Amino acid sequence: MSQITEQIHSSDVGDILENSLLGNRPSYEDTVRLLKSADVHLMGLVAGHITKKRFGKKASFVNNIILNYTNVCITDCKFCAFYRSPGDSESYTLSLDQIEARIKTAWEMFGIRQVLIQGGHNPALGIEYYEDAFRMIHKKYPQVGIHGLSASEIDMIAKIEKTSTGEVLSRLKSAGLQSVPGAGAEILVDSVKQIISPKKISSDDWLRIMEEAHSIGLPASATMMYGHVESNRDIAVHFEKIAKLQEKSMGFMAFIPWSFEPNNTPLQKEMHTPEAGGMQLLKMVAISRLVFDGLIPHIQSSWLTNGIGMAQIALQCGADDFGGTLIGEEVVSCTGARSTELTGQKIIDAITQIGYGAEERDNFYNPV
């Protein structure tokens, strides 16, 4: 702690970090200053200190699979290399039997505790497709938590069914849905969304659907995809909007910042900024902890887009959760990023290598 105190007095963001150590969360303008500052090392030290005080020297992870049930999508997001248009020769949609076979294998081989279900915005799939899948998983694999469908997928189902997103969430919860992932947020600023995902739901709709989920007892994670066309102020707005909703609903279990992977995406050709690197990840993780301290308990280390080495450092800079094993991941792997699945043992090894204790968890961040 004395090491931190000495450095704080000479830092351009020392006053903000001092406040954070006293339990005061940064304001919007403070967040902008943190984003502009190059003092990532000190931010990481302070965020790491706060995290250790809360969780000790340990990190959690979940044994899970990602079930990308369809790649058919009509939203044409410029940051995505995964989707295919309806009728494309490379398009697919998994049948109920195929979904069951994947979960059965993952349960038998890895003892998974969560299935993360995400896909494209497929206009051919009505709500019964999801209800049948969730009921089957819940009945046959009750130990496997169903963490599924982004706010924009929920919106798509509501449009197909000509009903409200609230009704869709309620029906899916009855069928076995337990929590909602944070995908589709990207950056919660519509001028950014207009550039990278103009056909996707607006920022207000994402927040509204998340609030509807929280209100019926469906907790969620919140995400941020940075490193494309956004500004520091856009990122600060994103943090502020999520913090405001959390103050109201307390429904977010975790926050996950992850960097845009440009390879093979339409946005790659349009971007003139360099790819976000490891220092930017550590800055985002540290600021996430400072902004959400006492609000959102868990910050994920984001190994999927930044690799294991950076995730290990992120655990010392404010993250407390390594995320999941992500067996069967297909979205990020379409960018050719890197190996996009791990085993539980590899995660345990990565956590223990840095002198931390590893703790396997379930869908709700409870130790298994």
Would you mind describing this structure in some detail?
This protein is mainly α and 368 residues long. The protein has a single domain, classed as Alpha-Beta Barrel (TIM Barrel). It is 46% helix and 11% strand. The chain is built from 15 helices and nine strands. The chain has a three-stranded parallel beta sheet with strand order 8-1-9, with helices on one face. A three-stranded parallel beta sheet has the order 2-3-4, with helices on one face. Helix 6 (127-140) links the parallel strand 3 (114-117) and strand 4. Helix 7 packs across helix 8 (165-175). The chain is globular. The chain starts with a helix and ends in an 8-residue tail after the last strand. The relative contact order is 0.16. Mean pLDDT is 90; it is low at 331-338.
Chart the SSEs and their pairings.
Elements: H1 2-8, H2 14-21, H3 28-36, H4 40-55, E1 58-62, E2 64-67, H5 96-110, E3 114-117, H6 127-140, E4 145-148, H7 151-161, H8 165-175, H9 190-196, H10 203-215, E5 220-226, H11 232-249, E6 252-259, H12 266-270, H13 278-292, E7 298-299, H14 303-314, E8 321-324, H15 344-353, E9 357-360
Parallel strand pairs: 1-8, 1-9, 2-3, 3-4, 5-6, 6-7
Helix pairs in contact: 3-11, 4-13, 5-6, 6-8, 7-8, 7-10, 10-11, 13-14
